[in-house]
Amino acid sequence: MQPVWSTACPDWRERIVERRSLVPFDPLFPDEAEAALTVFKSLQITDLPYDAELGRYPTFGEVSEPFVFEFVGAIFGAYNPDTARRLINEFLLLISKKNSKSTIAAGIAVTAIVRNWRHSAELLVLAPTKEVANNVFTPAMGMVREDPELNLLLHIVENQRTIKHRVTRAELKVVAADTDIVSGKKAAFIIVEELWLFGKMPRADAMLMEATGGLVSRPEGFVVYLSTHSDEAPAGVFASKLSLFREIRDGTVTDLRKFGMLYEFPEAMIEAEAYLDPENFYVTNPNIGRSVDAEWLMGKLIEAQREGSGALQIFLAKHLNVEIGLRLSRHRWRGADSWEAAGDKTLTLEELLRRCEVVVIGIDGGGLDDLFGLCVAGRERGTRRWLFWFRAWAWPEVFTRRQSEESVLQNFVDDGSLIKVGHNGGPALEEWGDLDFEDGSSSEEDVSEIVAVIEQVKASGLLPDKGAIGLDPQGVGALVDALAEIGLVHPQVVAVSQGFRLSSAVWSMERKLKLKMVVHDGSRMMAWCVGNAKAEQKGNAVLITKESAGKAKIDPLIAGFNAAKLLEANPAAQGGNLDDFIAQMKPKAA
């Protein structure tokens, strides 16, 4: 009989605070779960002190907390022995550092090769670096060597980080990430360690797809992702997997074949910064009191707070599993604290034009290694709120010269908020030359597309007669010429002074965000740009600069400040200023 289950855990907030199980279902096939747990619990953990009295190292069964057995039971208990098919085949464990994550990965890997029945099967532990790979292989090797029965059954090839089954000839390989290594693999069981680091690697999604492709013809297999949070905002494949597993956990997406055990603080605790209270450390450290020492965490927290925001950010991400978002970015712009709450993904350009009485445009250009940022901003009828819609364009150089950001930028391309110049039906990214596009794309393709958006805004009749388009005066000559061709010149097109002269717009945005008088389109690209912005106090002015030179892009945000500078001038609405409208609505004196 087919079991009935759900991988959603909508009451996870209550469960995690009350230290209850985060697995919302019993093992689908209890006998399979029990058989695997018998193997798993017997494995010795060689990085724990040797027990002279017992004459061996402690086992998982003797020292692990229940969450470990629940997770392992869910993985192996999802296998249907009658059909040789695993009904849940993709798992994620998100947990704080030092909660035995790598050791658990090693135990799952050894259990899998023991329980596997397929001859010459491939089992793969994929790590982002050699060091991380060794963190898994070393305990796995120790588990085999310290068990007489496993030592007879399995053969270790240490220099190749490989464990071979002497009977089935199955091989468990622990490898560092390399597309050449995973290419052509037909692994039935894949364990991906430290997924957050893959999120920072270019083309990691393609590599993982290649590594997991063997499951197509091996329905008994599984993929297990293990990770702490990233020390920066989640990016790339880590961001996409994290988002998907959260939606499955919350019940907003139904996918019975995927399950995530995510040790995170509930949103209310994040908002209240309750994670800083040592009494709450257990929330994301279920192994506290065993592999995690509460006093050590307290000391490290105090030390990180003393060192400053950078050290604190890393501590929170790694040891308390707090996602590094806008509120925790190093030297953040204060508007970042309220940015996410002001997002509205339904705010399209058409919707903004419909709702606003006057609209302006901010633009920030740059070199081929920068984004070309565009912001359409308007004053909403009736509320006087500022509405913002953003887009950006990127040349091939942005992707090829900043490969560490490639997966991040590709997310924005997929969202539609970032446009690849020369990629509209043209050659693939890796085939691009510096400026030579075989598809006939103009060398000013970004300019022509930006002008097309501006033409749409102009057609709405909402641009003011003065100060309608604000430009960073550097590097926008081609755009100024193109705007003149559609009848937009000074005084509608104006230069917006940068640096400290932009301070008033920065402060205006901060204040209006705090007062909930700003609404933006809620794109991931802009959350990333805002997180990249570093605020520097210079006398009485504030400068918004890139957090790390040449790497972290903020051009669309600067375009937003340029637009805000124009809105500060209170441009007159077409057909009459809103102040006049309000005055007309007031009751007249008798």
UniProtKB/TrEMBL annotation:
Q: Which residues are in the Terminase large subunit-like ATPase domain? A: 71-200
Q: What species is given as this protein's source?
A: Sphingobium herbicidovorans (strain ATCC 700291 / DSM 11019 / CCUG 56400 / KCTC 2939 / LMG 18315 / NBRC 16415 / MH) (Sphingomonas herbicidovorans)
Q: Which domain of life is it from?
A: Bacteria
Q: Which residues fall in a coiled-coil region?
A: none
Classification via Pfam families: TerL_ATPase, TerL_nuclease
Q: This protein is called what?
A: Terminase
Q: Which InterPro entries match?
A: P-loop_NTPase, TerL_ATPase, TerL_nuclease, Terminase_largesu-like
All copies of the Terminase large subunit-like endonuclease domain together span 265-563
Tell me which PANTHER family the record gives. Answer: PROTEIN YMFN, PTHR41287
Q: What is the lineage of its organism?
A: Bacteria, Pseudomonadati, Pseudomonadota, Alphaproteobacteria, Sphingomonadales
Gene Ontology MF term list: endonuclease activity
